[in-house]
């Protein structure tokens, strides 16, 4: 009979996956703000008009 041992490594891997997912989600959600950071006010107004 084989026993399954769930040690601290399972918790560590699970925690790493969860934290990586959270960080990746945060980066994706903030990518638009990072790309629009260097837009001048005149260009920002134009972009707002064409995109709504």
Question: What distinguishing features does this structure have?
Answer:
52 residues; mainly alpha
How would you describe what is shown here?
The chain has 52 residues and is mainly alpha-helical. The chain has one domain. Helices cover 75% and strands 0% of the residues. The protein contains two helices and no strands. 0% of the residues are buried.
Short description:
By secondary structure, the chain is mainly α.
Q: Pick out the low-confidence regions.
A: none
The number of distinct helices, counting runs of at least 4 residues, comes to: 2
The H/E string reads: HH
Helix content: over 70%
The strand count comes to 0
Termini distance?
65 Å
Please give the domain count. Answer: 1
Shape: rod-shaped
Give a quick account of the main beta sheet: strands, pairing sense, barrel closure.
Answer: none
How much of the sequence lies in strands comes to under 5%
Mean pLDDT: 80
